[in-house]
Amino acid sequence: MNRTITLERIIEYYDVPQLFIGKDKIGTRYLCLLFDDDHYISVQLSFNRLADFIQGKIDLRELYIHPEFEGEYFVAIQNGEVFSLNTYDKKVLPEEMLPSENYYYNVEQESTSVFEGTMIGSNIDTGKWVFKPSMERR
Hints:
By secondary structure, the chain is mostly beta strands. The protein has 2 helices and 8 strands, in the order E-E-E-E-H-H-E-E-E-E.
C-alpha cells in the first residue's frame, strides 16, 4: 500500500522533525518517529489514542510496541511537501527502531499553546482539533 501524508504537527524537532503527527487525505493520523537520516517509522492512531498520548496518559514506546492495528507499521519518507507512506514488511519492530521508555508528551515543553486543555473532538469542516481550555496547570 502506498499513500501520502502531510505534516500536521511537529512534536520534537532537532535539525529535522524527530517526531511528528501526519495526516492522510481522509483524516487518518499517523505518529512518525525518525529512525535514520530520512526514514520515519509510523503507526496509525485513532483520535482517542492520540488524545491519550497528547494528554500524557500513554508513553511513546507503548504506541509503537502495541499499535492499535497489531503488526501494522509504515515507513514514511519525505517527498517534497508530503511524505510517502509505505507498509513496513515486518510485524514486530526491532529494538533499535523503538523509542526509549518513559517518553510522555508534556504540554509545558510545547512552544505554543495549541495542545493546552482537553482534546474533545475534531471539526469536520476545518479538520482542526477542538480543545476544551484547561483552567489548571499541570
